[in-house]
């Protein structure tokens, strides 16, 4: 309203001017500007706080869920074992001192044996590496080109699968009896 | 100080005279060590066996009784009660009820029916050295009879490099030519695993002085040397201990031993 009044006053003042060169027209299709709602700053602050709290709550919930790990069934002791522990304990006579002594000696002997084995393994590795290096040096002496070809990476080897030795050799023409695969693992979100 | 300087400066001067004469031409050969890896695990030696038994005993001592053992104990107690007349024999389901001992007997019976393959093969007994189905616990290596000079030798398969080939390609070609297409192997990389050189007899040194052999390592995937190819060649698969006895040349045996396991 005040704006209209001001305009009316303006046109009145400039009446003489308008007659000469300035055309003033009534404002068509206009509507009064909406009064801007003035919000209480406290309310705004409250709203923002609420928003912030909501987001924080969500984050907290996510974090809580992230900490919940998928249970590993194999690592959990079955309840029946815990319940019947006394019943299931073996009642064996305690070891005699001679037996303990013998076991300790055997363990020491075993430690020495494994140590020797490891040392000889390292020696074998050293020898193999030396042999290879010698071969490469000799090849380089003969031809730089052949040497370059020899030290290239063999990409065919990159996914290499080697099957280890087994306790008894595979039976020839053995048809393994068919079984059913039962999917037991439960799904975890 | 001055004298040392003189020595150093005089060295390069004297060198070229000796090397120009010594720039010799060597023939390049590729050799292949084909190994059949062990199929079965090694038998335990006495110490290993002893320790294995100890571990089993400790494991048993620390374990809890299984369901089967519990059931067995319960069965025994029940039988004792029946004997004393304190409990009734349940007529209706005693026939259907199997004791733990019955189950165990059935399992043992079933296991006895299953025949495991022997760790020793018929080829072991027949000492058939051209078979790969032999010495399953050991790594066995392929030796092929070849003519070097005037004589036949049992050696790792080897052959001369032709122009334009890398040593790896030579090795693959040599193996294919000597052993046929049947032999499937996996080469361990492009680099040679071992080296051996020898000089030709002095009357044959006109072109090149000697041969340098670069050995490649490969493991057998499947197949064997083609026995039907012409001319037929003699070959053997031998474990490490028997290998060096087959080499007539000690220097060659030494070079090969350097890259064997």
Automatic annotation (TrEMBL), chain A:
Transmembrane segments: none annotated. Its main location: mitochondrion. Belongs to the mitochondrion-specific ribosomal protein mL40 family. Residues 122-156 form a coiled coil. InterPro entries: Ribosomal_mL40, Ribosomal_mL40_metazoa/plant. Residues 167-189 are annotated as: Disordered. It comes from the Eukaryota. It is found in: Mitochondrion. The keyword Secreted does not apply. The keyword Transit peptide applies. Keywords: Coiled coil, Mitochondrion, Ribonucleoprotein, Ribosomal protein, Transit peptide. This is Large ribosomal subunit protein mL40. One of its GO terms (cellular component) is mitochondrial large ribosomal subunit.
Automatic annotation (TrEMBL), chain B:
The keyword Cell inner membrane does not apply. Residues 141-245 form the Nudix hydrolase domain. Pfam families: MRP-L46, NUDIX. This is Large ribosomal subunit protein mL46. Gene3D superfamilies: Nucleoside Triphosphate Pyrophosphohydrolase (3.90.79.10). The gene is Dwil\GK16633. InterPro entries: NUDIX_hydrolase-like_dom_sf, NUDIX_hydrolase_dom, Ribosomal_mL46, Ribosomal_mL46_N, Ribosomal_mL46_NUDIX. Belongs to the mitochondrion-specific ribosomal protein mL46 family.
